[in-house]
Amino acid sequence: MKPTQEIREKLQEFQILEQNLQNIFLQKQAFQIELNETESALKEISSSSEEVYKIVGNIMVRAKKPELVKELEEKKEILNLRLKSLNNQEKILSEKMEKSRQELEKELKSEEKNSK
């Protein structure tokens, strides 16, 4: 049984959705790691003395604690927004994949019946 052009196209669409979902997962993972590092840095800063440092390029420079805390809080907020956006994209793609999978199964069953 040779799949029809329509089935091949739907299979290709499903594979593209699967790749997109994998990309979103990898992005979420990277942002989550960055968020964890940011939260860890905020925790360390809160328990440190007034003298704090940050890395800029390849060097470490002294920074004012309140400014650095503000910078890290803003970064944390942005990362949370990005993660929320990726979660929404993941949900939409998952729903599309499920619909595509169901359509593929339906087409394959129909094709199988027609070939008998």
Description:
The structure is a single chain. This protein is mostly helical and 116 residues long. It has one domain (5-115): Orthogonal Bundle (Helix Hairpins). 80% of the residues lie in helices and 10% in strands. The chain has helices at residues 5-46, 65-115, and strands spanning 51-56, 59-64. A two-stranded antiparallel ribbon has the order 1-2. A hairpin with a 2-residue loop joins strand 1 and strand 2. Helix 1 (5-46) packs antiparallel against helix 2. The mean pLDDT is 92.
Topology:
Layout: H1 5-46, E1 51-56, E2 59-64, H2 65-115
Antiparallel strand pairs: 1-2
In a nutshell, what does this entry contain?
The chain has 116 residues and is mainly α. The protein is built from two helices and two strands; from the N terminus they run αββα. A hairpin with a 2-residue loop joins β1 and β2.
**Number of distinct beta strands:** 2
Query: pLDDT under 50 segments (min length 5)?
Result: none
Approximate strand percentage: 5-15%
Mean pLDDT: 92
User: What structural category arises from helix and sheet content?
Assistant: mainly alpha
N- to C-terminal separation?
Answer: 10 Å
Tell the overall outline. rod-shaped
Largest sheet: 2 strands, antiparallel
Order of strands, main sheet, comes to 1-2
CATH topology, anyone? Answer: Helix Hairpins
Which radius of gyration do the C-alpha atoms yield?
Answer: 24 Å
